[in-house]
Amino acid sequence: MVKQGHYAKSSRKKMVRQFKQHHAQHEARAIDPLKIKAFLLVRYHLTQAKQQRVVVQKTMQQFFGNWLDLATAPENGQVWDVTALTKQTLQLSGYQVPWQYYAILNQQVKAWQAFLLKEGPAVPLEERLSVINPLTPATWPDVLSQQLAVNGLIGTWGRDRLSQVTAEQVAQLQASLVTDGHFNWAAVAAVCAPIQIEMASFDQGVQGLIRRLEKLDSTDFD
What we know:
The protein has 9 helices and 4 strands, in the order αααβααβααββαα. It has helices at residues 2-29, 36-48, 54-71, 82-93, 99-119, 139-157, 167-177, 185-192, 204-214; strands at residues 79-81, 130-132, 178-179, 182-183. A two-stranded parallel sheet has the order 1-2. β3 (178-179) and β4 form a beta hairpin.
């Protein structure tokens, strides 16, 4: 019995030591929460860039960078609501980018979200991220077409009159842009044509992206 008690005590010590070692290794691997954005942007570039043209790479880098700025805000903690954050990110861009920016997002959103759902919870943090409420084939066209409709109305009427726009007007314009989940990019281009982008408010990198985007037309997205 003495030997068994001694063995049990020794075994417990060994388990505690192994646990501490494992915990120390985990802490060593964990990244600084302030580096989440950089970590995921690099991971996204490494896994996606080979399949993307330069204009697509730069658009997605801009979008995902803005998305991560919102996601990593203190109020979100370790829970990222994909649909809510995507809506906020689109609103942040608003009419300050051309419609082609949104057309590229539409092409890439499925692959981008698959990356996020896989890689977000895998970021090596002390407290892992939870990525919830993903976009669906039904919610994404609604979210995107609503933003495009609002952009078009701002371009036509001006931001000062946006408060006069009704939900019915936005919905009517949305309906003209998308059918059964498929966007009519020629119609989007027409609706967004009055938008004037203030290039001087952006750095040279964003200005270059906007110029690249403006060279694309609706046939590039059919």
